[in-house]
Amino acid sequence: xxxxxxxxxxxxxxxxxxxxxxxxxxxxxxxxxxxxxxxxxxxxxxxxxxxxxxxxxxxxxxxxxxxxxxxxxxxxxxxxxxxxxxxxxxxxxxxxxxxxxxxxxxxxxxxxxxxxxxxxxxxxxxxxxxxxxxxxxxxxxxxxxxxx
Length: 148
What we know:
Blueprint: E1 7-10, E2 12-17, E3 22-30, E4 36-48, E5 51-58, E6 70-74, E7 77-82, E8 88-100, E9 103-112, E10 121-124, H1 125-128, E11 132-135, H2 141-147
Parallel strand pairs: 1-11, 3-10, 4-9
Antiparallel strand pairs: 2-3, 4-5, 4-10, 5-6, 7-8, 8-9
């Protein structure tokens, strides 16, 4: 069985989060991060029909893609994540779809406040593995692919 070749992506990519009606959002591609994360606020754990869910507000009003959307999803996982500043915190993980190079993938995202970060979405190596190779000298290769 021949595996399909890995696509080359840059250090920054514009991606879509189709289930949330978010298009063309900038993501930092970070091979130093194991997991992926998205900026959100008002994160609240709730129980629906006896199952753990999370209720959150995606992005914030300062972001151009902000649409005041409240999202409610099952909690996929909860685990400690060490941030770039070296501190660990317990984070909630959800699953959603991400679109890169006109292809949808399932991605696990930790919910966190990234308001102090330049990019609202960080894509880590757990998602990148077996799918992409990162060319740090490039950016927005998926957008260039769309224009062809």
